[in-house]
Design goal:
Layout: E1 4-10, H1 16-29, E2 34-38, H2 44-54, H3 63-87, E3 91-95, H4 98-108, H5 113-124, E4 131-136, H6 139-151, H7 167-183, E5 188-192, H8 197-212
The structure holds ligand Z5A.
């Protein structure tokens, strides 16, 4: 596969969505063919699953059902968007991927790690990012950013299912991400996401320049 698959991961409010947009602009300005996408989502089916996962309308979703919904969205995304783009030699920047499932469903929800890993492998047909940028910061700081953004939305507070979870849930997720980074230091680069947008942007660009040779 000729392209490069780069994922952006982190706890809620870590700034990865802001940074993926800036990274896309940076790489396009250097002449690279870039696809920017997100999970859950990235396809018409994925967007419908995203709506169920983030706003289930009061319907209870078990941990296992949640895992399989994320996996279903990913299978469609890999098959119809990510793999074709990589085969065309593009750089694919993806906001969350399998590491999010390990961090949220295994570490956060407490589902057993090995079956969750197996389902991730099955859904992605073994696709592993070439590089993952992990935006790390204390969960309190990330949630504060996320809630400030929600409060600024038209119509006031409308937090999603994940934003409503307790602090301990988000702390377990951060620990999960850091455990993945310790296990795979060659793939996962941990960036300090507690700094402002500009210094974080510079750190991202320096990692991407070195990795892609641009
Ligand atoms: N999930 C899962 O459980 N399992 C899975 O397999 C997958 C996902 C794939 C998707 O929600 C949820 O699904 C997610 C994990 C779960 N839930 N949580 N939590 P989403 O896609 O709607 O949300 P998100 O992925 O968590 O991203 P986010 O809320 O958009 O946050 P972000 O991408 O980390 O941050 P941001 O949007 O760039 O910034 C948030 C705010 O902070 C915004 O107002 C920015 O202007 C501001 N910001 C950004 N950077 C900075 C800095 N550096 N300083 C100050 N302020 C900043």
């Amino acid at each position: 596969m000729a392209g490069r698959f780069i994922t952006f991961e982190g706890v809620e409010g870590s700034g990865k969505t802001t940074q993926i947009r800036l990274a896309g602009e940076f790489l396009r300005a250097r002449g690279l063919a870039v696809v920017t996408t997100q999970e859950p989502g990235g396809t018409p089916l994925g967007e419908r699953i995203r709506e169920i996962l983030l706003n289930s309308g009061g319907v209870d979703i078990s941990g296992e059902a949640e895992l399989l919904l994320f996996a279903a969205a990913r299978a469609q995304h890999v098959d119809t968007v990510i793999r074709p783009a990589l085969e065309q030699g593009r750089v694919v920047l993806c906001d969350r991927f399998s590491d999010a499932t390990i961090a949220y469903q295994a570490y956060g929800r407490g589902l057993p790690l090995e079956p969750v890993r197996g389902i991730c492998r099955f859904a992605s047909r073994g696709l592993v990012p070439h590089l993952t940028l992990l935006f790390d910061l204390p969960v309190e700081a990330g949630l504060e950013r996320a809630f400030r953004r929600i409060a600024g939305r038209e119509g006031g507070l409308r937090e999603d299912r994940f934003e409503r979870e307790h602090l301990d849930f988000h702390r377990r997720i951060r620990e999960g991400y850091l455990a993945i980074a310790r296990q795979e230091p060659g793939r996962v680069r941990v960036l300090d996401a507690s700094q402002g947008i500009e210094p974080t942007r510079e750190a991202v660009q320096s990692v991407l320049s070195a990795f892609l040779g641009v």
